[in-house]
Amino acid sequence: MDIRIKLFATLRHGRGKELSISLEQGATPKDAIGMLEIAEKDIAILLINGRDGTLDQPLADGDIVAIFPPVGGG
Asked: What total number of domains does the chain contain?
């Protein structure tokens, strides 16, 4: 199945803004972030098709996964 990954802020470095990847049926966002070599601790918000998602939620063909890192500053 094919999904789109949208990366934000620091997660874009060396990866780009948006990626299309192919995964096995029944794959999860955890599988996708593993392929992209993103550490779980570097994910603050995970959206699947614009709604809150979890790392273990099964994905479907055509899903859009948006990943945001923790925000710092002051």
From this structure: 1
Q: What does residue 6 show for φ and ψ, rounded to 5 degrees? A: -110, 125
What CATH number corresponds to the domain at position 14?
Answer: 3.10.20.30
pLDDT, tens only, 23-56: 999 999 999 999 999 999 999 999 999 999 999 9
| Domain of 12, in residue numbers | 2-68
Of the candidates 14, 23, 10, the one whose C-alpha atom is nearest the C-alpha of residue 65 is 23
Cα of first residue to Cα of last residue in the chain, in angstroms, is 41
| Total-model pTM | 0.91
